[in-house]
């Protein structure tokens, strides 16, 4: 049987970047990993009304830099920065007194963010809205906002049926096997009375521009084509 690779890990070196940027030895790695998961869950729950699709964590010594991508930065910051200061204090206590920095990045087009689309469709399913209606509306909105292609997939007891099934909609181009394609992925779960329904979304935004690797030249290094010094 065919196996499915995770869309994020498949594209990590090419179009995706790591959401945890730090290094640790074996003994400390698992503790920091669990701390990352705890921080992400806390921030996601705390900012549940702020439309947060992605949280990036960077570590250096005893410092944490948390970058929050949000469609509603005003809710995260609060009046005169009160909410973000409160968030820093709570994270400072949770991490055992580590120095916390929080950066906010605004998402310009939340209608084309696959994570926000998945969460929005899942929220509509929890409100007993028809899954076909929710999926079609999300597809049309993303295409109207400039997406080159979109695919949405719902799986579970759709409509309260006795047997779980899968249904999906796709419009435009979604080249899942092309690594240079700029494809983003999102996933959410709808907690319905008859069970969980999983929602997956893929958005294609066009080909990824190829970037040349940056070369770093050290002043002490001699050029490659330099002539050797004459023997004495």
Secondary structure blueprint with pairings:
Blueprint: H1 7-10, E1 20-21, H2 26-46, E2 54-60, E3 63-70, H3 73-77, H4 82-94, E4 99-106, H5 114-126, H6 131-144, E5 149-156, E6 165-172, E7 181-192, E8 195-207
Parallel strand pairs: 1-2, 3-4
Antiparallel strand pairs: 2-3, 5-6, 5-8, 7-8
Helix pairs in contact: 5-6
Task: Spell out the key features of this protein.
232 residues; alpha/beta; GMP Synthetase, Chain A, domain 3; Ribosomal protein S3 C-terminal domain; 2 domains; four-stranded mixed beta sheet; four-stranded antiparallel beta sheet; 6 helices; 8 strands; globular
Give a description of the structure.
This protein is of the alpha/beta class. The protein has two domains: 19-106, GMP Synthetase, Chain A, domain 3; 110-207, Ribosomal protein S3 C-terminal domain. The chain contains six helices and eight strands. The strands form two sheets. Strands 1-2-3-4 form a four-stranded mixed sheet. Strands 6-5-8-7 form a four-stranded antiparallel sheet, with helices on one face. Helix 2 (26-46) links the parallel strand 1 (20-21) and strand 2 (54-60). Helix 5 (114-126) packs antiparallel against helix 6 (131-144). It is globular and about 50 Å long. The model has no long low-confidence stretch (mean pLDDT 87).
Oligomer: single chain
CATH secondary-structure class of the largest domain = Alpha Beta
Q: Tell me the major beta sheet.
A: 4 strands, mixed
Beta-strand content = 25-35%
Briefly summarize what is shown.
The chain is an alpha/beta fold. Helix content is about 30%, strand content about 30%. A four-stranded mixed beta sheet has the order 1-2-3-4. The chain has a four-stranded antiparallel beta sheet with strand order 6-5-8-7, covered by helices on one side.
